[in-house]
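Record type: monomer structure entry
Structure origin: computed from sequence
Chain ID: A
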Amino acid sequence: MLKYSKGLILNFIIVTLYFLALQFIVTVIARYSRDIGIDVVKTGIIWSSLFLVSLILRPIAGYVADKTSSYLAMSIGALFLAISSLVYMYSKDFNVLLVGRLIQGAGNGFFVSPSITAVAIIAGKYAGMALGLRSMIISMTSIVAPPIAGAITDLLGYTPVFTITLVLALITSTICGIAFKYEVKTADSNVINTRSTAKWRDAINLIVMLSFLITIIGGGIFSSLSGILQAHYRDIGYEAKIYGYFMMMFGLSSTVSRFLAGKLVSKKHPAKIAIVGYVLISSSMIILYYNYYIPWSYISAIVYGIGIGLTVPTLQFLVISSVDKSVANRAMSIYAMGFDIGGLIMPLLLSHVASLYGYSYVYFYLSILPFVAVGALMIILYYQKQ
């Protein structure tokens, strides 16, 4: 049975604060871009630029976290998120908004994968359940933050949303910094010695690389949908809160499925759970293709939430359980780089599709991609049966 130690509870608090801040930004940034006169294609560039920086910095963050502490990397990441929020407050054109998004990418690069590793290491043999709970917490932030951010934007504008993000990010960075100082004082010298001898090659294996490929697909779908649908809703005349409600529905369903996935990994092979998830993701995109208006599109949000909830913690568990903990941050950074590559390339390509042929074609293409992930997961199943 998973024990809720002080370290695990602290980590969950940190994750909650960071992703609350992140959800406030994610809910409004594409809409904000359109509202200040930036076209759909350039909005896609702004949206994708985050993932380029995150992709470059994740290996560095993984190396820093393995050599020092996950909490140090997380503190740096949260500080970058705070700075990006400050830049967004004063962004009135493409160039300044792009700078803010690039800085936010640095935040994601330093925070996300070390936070996954920290939870898994603290939980030990109950890592699967802990990762499920962490994933569930992230989904819960998408229940709370998007509708609030949408309502605030409709009533008061964007500046209060950016201010909330700034405050939450600064609090997160401070708590991570305190946790890092405490960890240094209580560190085991054997752990430090192990960190110093671990090599990058120890973090690379077939499971890690296939999970990296799968995450390109999953990250590309999520990033494309969350950016393009946000702009789509704005362009058909919906208020900001409508997209917020879509994300809330997504968050509600994925909260349940992420928790279940965390419990199921001890009974079923994680790849089997993830396969079911990707089939559901494909189904959700088909639903959206045929009817993207509300309230019917909320059905897509619910199905998509269930699907993604079955894929995220299971893939993370596959990666973390396939390597030694001395290189866990580096392995997790490779896995997370897949999300960045998908998030960089697919929104750029699909924003062009949206501008040329219409938004609905984007959802059709997104319904096909999950079956590439299903193929890679079947290879993992075959490999681990040998």
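Annotation 1: Residues 186-194 have pLDDT under 50 and may be disordered.
Annotation 2: The two ends are 30 Å apart (CA to CA).
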